Amino acid sequence: MASRGTTATVQDSPDDEIHAVAGGRASGIPLVGKGEEPLIFALSVKGRKGFQLPDTGVPDLPAESLLPASCITEQPPALPEVSERDLVGHYTRLTHRQYSLDLGFYPLGSCTMKYNPKAFDEVASLATLVGVHPMAPPHATQGWMELLWDLEQALCRITGMSAFTLQPPAGAAGELTGLLMVDAYHRACGRRRAVILIPESAHGTNPASAKMAGFTTRVIATNADGCVDLASLQESLSDEVAAIMLTNPNTIGIFEQDVERICSLVHDAGAVAYYDGANLNAIMGVTTPARMGFDIVHLNTHKTFGTPHGGGGPGAGPVGVRSGLEQFLPGPRPVLDPSGRYRWDIPEHSIGRVHASHGNAIVLARALAYILSNGADGLLKVSQVAVLNANWLMNVLSGAFEVPYGDKCMHECVLSLSEYKRKYGVRASDIAKMLLDKGFHPPTISFPLVVDEAMMIEPTETESLQTLQAFVSAMLDIAREIDIDGSVPAKAAPVNTPVGRVDETRAARRPVVTST
Ligand SMILES: *Cc1c(COP(=O)(O)O)cnc(C)c1O
User: Fold this and answer.
1) In whole angstroms, what is the distance from residue 484 CA to residue 488 CA?
2) Ligand 1 atom at minimal distance to the Cα of residue 112
3) Domain that holds residue 401
């Protein structure tokens, strides 16, 4: 059989055995979509292998002769023993039970779940990039260093900042990095400041990062327009305040009209203005965080610049600083010498490393590819179309659903479904489940917290008018179905998905993670 080091292509034990361990199902393999898929352990057959190496002629030695006794367990690990074919079948069937970005519309507000062109997968798998050892010396990695340098220059142009660290692996990690720099800045000025101001509508990672960086937080109220309440800001400012964290457009999808005033009030109090750049998709080429008055910015390359995310895969959260704060950036960072060579540099008052090597470098390569392939005009168009799509949706949906703030939005819009709760006892989460039945990934619900029964829709620029129309039709159908039958269809949904409605409390508290 597969004795020459190829993968095993022939099952090496009879078929009836696998049926026995998989629970005696007559058909053996479940159909795509509905139906149970057993855990991979239930497919295990003793002695079955997924891969066989050729006989190298090296004699077998007992483990005891090679490893210290403390490294040897009494029992072998309980790993599933399956053929490559069983393994691929198992995971392929699981993927068919999932909804994904490649499958369709994914309007999850605050997440920018745009379609990511396959060309960037090619970039991310270039052997000349992935084959480089992260600890190779600078003379062997000039190409990678140039790539990182070019990306940094591009991000500086896009945001107006003067330098970036590319190390943080996600937006939240960027926030922590930025806040550690805020702390280092105040210490360098000979003072300690303990408080971070965070608007009511902020993303949950903002207060979490502030806490992790050793700060306490103070909440700023939202005014009737959905923006930062200036009176509340002024009341909260004092010489205890280290920074404000703000995203603009904010999480309600509205541009903070008073953003320059906010930044100048914060600066007058000796504090730092931190920009949460997760919503950058709304403003590229139109304005910059620097123009608004911010000092430190994190970006989510996986939201804005062509990396799929949401499945726990790698992302990147570069952090940019205005001139004067470069000395606090994590290091080492690539710098271009006058000789035209790149070298690694550690800034004078660096907060130190925040990630091994140079961050999730391959995601950074994707980001540069995305930026270069769009160009400045293309990035402007990305933001313009993202904002246009969101406004179109908000406008059309506002006929049937309540829009709690404003009549224009940026790249995402927020509906309030509280009327359905009042009239029928139908929650935003019920409507989300009805959308699943109609083949759509639901938008974000119950966030931002300042909106009752919020539904937050971010269509992104990658969706066509036909897709947006289909989504609107689904939403209007749902509204009609609820008007006719009240909560009945809403509470039954979803019925067309591989898994029906689960008891969310029990699923969270007592998850069932075995198939027996
Ligand atoms: C997504 C998001 C974050 C966190 O980014 P991660 O990469 O998920 O850690 C922070 N702020 C806002 C406004 C976001 O939308």
Assistant:
1) 10
2) 15
3) 377-509
